[in-house]
Structures are given as structure tokens and as C-alpha cells.
Design goal:
Blueprint lengths: L1 E3 L18 E3 L11 H8 L4 H5 L3 E7 L6 H5 L8 H15 L3 E13 L2 E4 L7 E6 L5 E4 L4 E3 L2 H13 L3 E2 L7 E2 L2 E12 L5 E13 L6 H4 L4 H24 L13 H5 L1 H5 L3 E6 L8 H14 L10 E5 L2 H26 L4 H87 L3 H14 L4 H48 L3 H64 L6 H20 L4
Parallel strand pairs: 3-12, 3-13
Antiparallel strand pairs: 1-2, 4-5, 4-8, 4-11, 5-6, 6-7, 9-10, 11-12, 12-14
Helix pairs in contact: 12-13, 12-14, 12-15
Length: 602
């Protein structure tokens, strides 16, 4: 719990006694000046390291005004290392403890200075560009990725990159960071015993040290420093707008990440496939009240953002040229086991030794079978989870499409009603002018020009603007639906293949039955989700029918106006009509009276 007290409160000021800006904020954990760097790391970041090592994405970023201690929290000092150093130490420790898995660690380190990206590990490469691949993932073109084998190598590269960061003194902070720094550590893991098909898991850890928001009145910046501050505040404003939009459940469906390169790089961290920790920094000084309040407001909103996290797993098929290497490794393993068996048979107690070897082989086979079952079960559960996530996403997109359709019909109805009402008013004015004016043609021309120059009501203008936005939203939604449907079909085929492999890969009848039960549970979950989708579809159909009924009422009223207008013209000009037409008009009049008796709108 953080309590923000208003430094301007005066107990003797009776007029402003009830205008206090005191506010309370609740967060997952808070730290005061007595907490160490280790306390902050253990409570915020340590839990993410095993997830990164097993193939998930994670992001930690420091947020707050200039001089609040963000760089100290992320980098630290030699005596008090920050989150970056401690996270990398624990990451390599986690990899050393799992000897059955082969890891590959690469890292890149960049800064965003004045909305330009610079490679801190290779500063001579100049300014780099952001690109998007076919899947919409943002990549930095030309960024150097360095392979690291130990914590010491990573620390050396981190120190080298920090020396290249842009830092300048200001009135508010003697060592002010003038850029945003992003350290990306990529961990790829695979099983040491290679097979024809290899599962590769890729985890990414993003450690972000943001530049602090600043006010020119406090920093006394001039010239180049003021330009830097403007770029910093602009990118932080874009970040704040994204946080506001993501935390608002009733907000816009489209989140504008393109206002800044910082938000484009942090797109997944804010609302995508990533476990994210935001560490907000504030100052206890009374002069920093507004900055502290703004930081706490954004942190409180960010707390309500929900991300959809899934493991990054790819299946890699080795090329035929690599099969010989795999076969050679297996032959070496067979030769080693044969040599070991021969050594045991040459001992005095040959029978006992053979039994021991057989027991060891059986035990090894049992452990291998258990590991295969566990691995296969995990693959099956991961496939089920991915398929259910895709189905839920598709259901949400279908619901969004139905909402867009209803909103489009509603706005079209508003515009149609306005056009009918406008035509009715114009007709009434023309009739009045024809009756009262001596110069009907001139009056008609004046009235027509007045009607044409009349501005549309605000609700009609809003309806037209919303129709444009809804058209764009519909196009984007349909495009995303097509992509999700393709991914769902791929996931469904993968699950089907895994189910077919159960009798082949699993020899135990009990384990086969357990896996078949898991498949049955998955089918029941799919049926439940399809039931939810059908319920949403029925609700949409009911609402759509209501909209159709409203349109029919509108069309019927328009027909009534046309019939009355034509009847009036016939009566005024004493035109002769056929008996059939007169009979139809009598039937129409009786139906109108019947509708009035029933209370319908005519």
C-alpha cells in the first residue's frame, strides 16, 4: 500500500479543508529506502527466470521521473548489483542445473535516443531501422546478436554497452540517462539426445531501463538537452497512452503502438505473449508530488492489463545430411554399452554381473519409458492448450465481428432516418411556399438552397465517422480471423497426429488409457466452448432480428408517408383514380385504424 500525501494541505485553511489530493494505491509489493537490491530482485524478477529457461517471454522495465533511481535498480553498482546482473546470474545457474538440455544464449543491447535506435554492442553500425516480419513481429534490422557462454561474458558485454549509453547532467539529475536502454537475452533449448524431429523452445528476457520523464522548469534544459527531453517525454506519453488503452476494458479495440519506437518494441510486453513486471519509481520529496502522482496513476492502470502467455515451441526436422551425424552418435552409444557389458562379463562373478547389467538395462529402459511418457504427455497438453487458446481467440473475433455488424446497422439506420426527415421537412416547406408566396419559384429556390446549406446534426456526423471506423475494424478483424483459422487448422492437425501416435509411442496400456482420457477431456472442453459460441450466436441473432424489425418499422412509416402524399396530390388536383386503387386505399385506412387500436407506431 502506497499513500500519497498532498504537501499543500493546510489544516488552518478552512476553505480548502475538503479539497485534499491525498490518494492510496495498492500494488503487489512496495519497497522503501531500507530495502536492498536483492530484496527488490527476489520480489519482482526472480520468479521469471525459470519461465524464460523453459521457453516463455518475460519483460522487466523501470518507470518513473528523472532522478528516481531507475538506472540504479536495473544496473546497480559493483557492491549492489542491479536486476540485470542478478537475473543473468540466476539464468546461467538455472541452465547448469538442467544437464539433460542443451542451451544457447544470445544477447543484444540497444538504446533509443531521440527516436533513433543505436546498437550499444556495435555502435559503429549507425542508426538502425525497425521492420515487421510476415507475422507482425517487430524486429530491429541489423542488430548484432552475440553468443554468450557464461555470466562473465554477458557482464563484460553489458559493461561495454553501458559505456556507450548517452548520459548528460541536468539540473534535476547529474547522471541523467538521455535514452531508453533495452537488453534482450534469448535462450534456446533442445534435448541433448538428438532425434529426427527436434523440439526447440525459445525464451526471451527483456530488461528495460527507461529514461525519466522531466520538466524543463526543473531541469533548466536548453538547446540540445531540451530536444532530448522532448523526445523522451513524447515516447513516455505514447507508452502512457498504450497503458491507458490496455487497462480500459471499455476502451478502443485498436491500440496505437506506432506513436513511438519504444511502444513498438514493447508491444508484446504490454499486451501480448509476455510475462511483464513494471517497477515504478517515485521520490518522497514534496517538490516531486506531481511526478510521483502521475507515476502511481500509470502503475495502477498497468496493474489491470492482462496478457496471454504461451510457450514458444518449434519442431525442427533435421536435414538428411545430418542423419549420418545422429547415426554416428547412436553407434558410439551402442559401442559404449557393449564395452561396458563385456567388462562385466569378464569379472569373476559373471552370472551376478550379467544380472546386474540386465537390471541396469531394465532400470534404464524404465526411466527412458517414463521420460518418454512425460515428454509425450507434455506435448499433448501443450497442443491442447494452444488449440483452446486459438479457439477462444476465434470466438472473441466472431463476437467482435457481430458487434461491428450491429453497430454498422444502427449507424446506417440513424443516417436513413435523418435523410427521410430531411426530405419530409423540405416537402413541407415547398408546400407552404406554394400556398402562401406570390413567387413560388423564387421561394422554392431560396428554401432549397437553405436546406442544402443546413449542417447535418452531430449524431449524423458521428454516425458517418463511426461507419468509416467500423469498416476499417471489420477489415482488420476479418484478416486476423483468417490468420487464426489457419493456425487453428494447423494446431488441430498436430493434435490429431499426436493422438494417432499414442499406441506407437506409449507401450503401457495404463498410460495409453490415461492419455486417451486426456483427449476425451479436451473434446469435452471443445464442446463446452462451442456451446458458449452458439449461445453468443443466438444472442446476436436475437439482436439482429430486433434491428431488422426496427428497419421494417422505418420502411413501413416511409411507405405511409408516400401513400398519404400521393393521396393528397390526387385529392388536390382532383385526379380520377381507378376503383381498384380506391378499394386498396380503404383497406390501407382500415389497417391503419387497426394498428392505432393495437397501439403500434404508424
Amino acid at each position: 500500500m502506497v499513500v500519497l500525501l498532498d504537501p499543500s494541505d493546510d489544516p488552518d485553511d478552512i476553505l480548502r479543508a475538503n479539497r485534499s489530493r491525498e490518494k492510496q494505491y495498492a500494488f503487489d509489493c512496495t519497497f522503501d529506502g531500507s530495502c536492498s537490491q536483492r530484496d527488490v530482485y527476489d520480489a519482482t524478477t526472480k520468479v521469471l527466470i525459470p519461465n524464460v529457461a523453459s521457453g516463455y517471454n518475460a519483460t522487466v522495465f523501470a518507470y518513473g521521473p528523472t532522478g528516481a533511481g531507475k538506472t540504479y535498480t536495473m544496473l546497480g553498482t559493483d557492491d549492489e548489483p542491479g536486476i540485470m546482473v542478478q537475473a543473468l546470474n540466476d539464468l546461467f545457474l538455472e541452465m547448469r542445473q538442467n544437464a539433460d538440455v542443451a542451451y544457447k544464449v544470445t544477447m543484444s543491447y540497444l538504446e533509443i535516443y531521440n527516436e533513433m535506435i543505436r546498437d550499444l554492442l556495435n555502435p559503429d553500425s549507425g542508426f538502425l531501422e525497425l521492420r515487421e516480419d510476415a507475422k507482425g513481429n517487430v524486429q530491429v534490422a541489423g542488430i548484432s546478436e552475440v553468443t554468450a557462454r557464461s555470466t562473465e561474458e554477458v557482464m563484460g558485454m553489458l559493461v561495454k554497452g553501458n559505456l556507450e549509453r548517452t548520459q548528460e547532467p541536468t539540473a534535476a539529475n547529474a547522471t541523467s540517462s538521455r535514452s531508453h536502454a533495452i537488453l534482450q537475452v534469448t535462450v534456446k533449448q533442445r534435448n541433448r539426445l538428438r532425434n529426427i524431429m527436434q523440439e526447440v523452445r525459445t525464451g526471451r528476457l527483456f530488461l528495460v531501463d527507461l529514461a525519466g520523464s522531466e520538466r524543463a522548469a526543473n531541469t533548466h534544459n536548453r538547446g540540445k538537452r531540451m530536444v532530448e527531453g522532448a523526445h523522451i517525454n513524447r515516447s513516455l506519453l505514447a507508452l502512457g497512452n498504450c497503458i491507458n488503452a490496455l487497462s480500459d476494458k471499455n476502451g478502443p479495440k485498436y491500440i496505437n503502438y506506432r506513436d513511438s519506437k519504444l511502444t513498438r518494441l514493447l508491444k508484446d510486453a504490454l499486451g501480448g505473449n509476455c510475462k511483464t513486471v513494471m517497477i515504478a519509481h517515485i521520490s518522497p520529496a514534496s517538490t516531486q508530488f506531481e511526478e510521483s502522482r502521475n507515476t502511481l496513476v500509470y502503475a495502477d492502470r498497468a496493474k489491470h492489463i492482462r496478457t496471454k502467455v504461451r510457450r514458444n515451441v518449434t519442431d525442427v526436422a533435421y536435414h538428411i545430411a545430418q542423419y549420418s551425424s545422429i547415426i554416428s552418435e547412436l553407434r558410439d552409444e551402442v559401442l559404449r554399452l557393449r564395452t561396458k557389458l563385456t567388462e562385466h562379463t569378464q569379472q569373476k562373478h559373471s552370472v551376478a554381473s550379467i544380472q546386474a547389467v540386465q537390471s541396469e538395462v531394465v532400470e534404464s529402459q524404465r526411466r527412458t519409458d517414463k521420460a518418454d511418457v512425460t515428454n509425450f504427455k507434455e506435448q499433448l497438453l501443450t497442443s491442447f492448450k494452444d488449440q483452446m487458446e486459438l479457439r477462444r481467440t476465434l470466438m472473441e473475433l466472431n463476437n467482435a465481428s457481430m458487434e461491428i455488424s450491429l453497430e454498422t446497422n444502427r449507424n446506417q439506420l440513424v443516417i436513413s432516418e435523418y435523410q427521410v426527415e430531411k426530405a419530409r421537412q423540405l416537402r413541407n416547406r415547398e408546400h407552404t411556399n406554394m400556398t402562401d408566396s406570390k413567387f413560388p419559384d423564387e421561394e422554392k429556390e431560396n428554401e432549397g438552397s437553405t436546406a442544402d446549406n443546413e449542417a447535418e446534426p452531430v449524431e449524423v456526423q458521428v454516425a458517418r465517422d463511426e461507419l468509416k471506423v467500423l469498416h476499417e475494424e471489420k477489415y482488420k478483424t476479418e484478416r486476423v480471423k483468417t490468420t487464426i483459422q489457419r493456425e487453428l487448422e494447423t494446431a488441430r492437425n498436430k493434435t490429431h497426429k499426436l493422438e494417432e501416435l499414442i499406441p506407437v509411442r506409449i507401450s503401457s496400456a495404463d498410460q495409453q488409457e490415461i492419455l486417451h482420457l486426456l483427449c476425451r477431456v479436451h473434446q469435452l472442453e471443445i464442446q463446452s466452448l462451442e456451446g458458449q459460441s452458439a449461445s453468443l450466436l443466438r444472442d446476436f441473432q436475437i439482436r439482429h432480428k430486433d434491428m431488422v424489425i426496427t428497419k421494417l418499422h422505418h420502411s413501413r412509416n416511409l411507405s405511409d408517408d408516400i401513400i398519404k402524399c400521393q393521396k393528397k396530390i390526387i385529392d388536390e388536383h382532383k385526379l380520377k383514380s381507378t376503383p381498384e386503387l380506391e378499394q386498396l386505399y380503404v383497406l390501407y385506412t382500415e389497417e391503419q385504424k387497426h394498428r392505432l387500436v393495437k397501439g403500434e407506431d404508424i
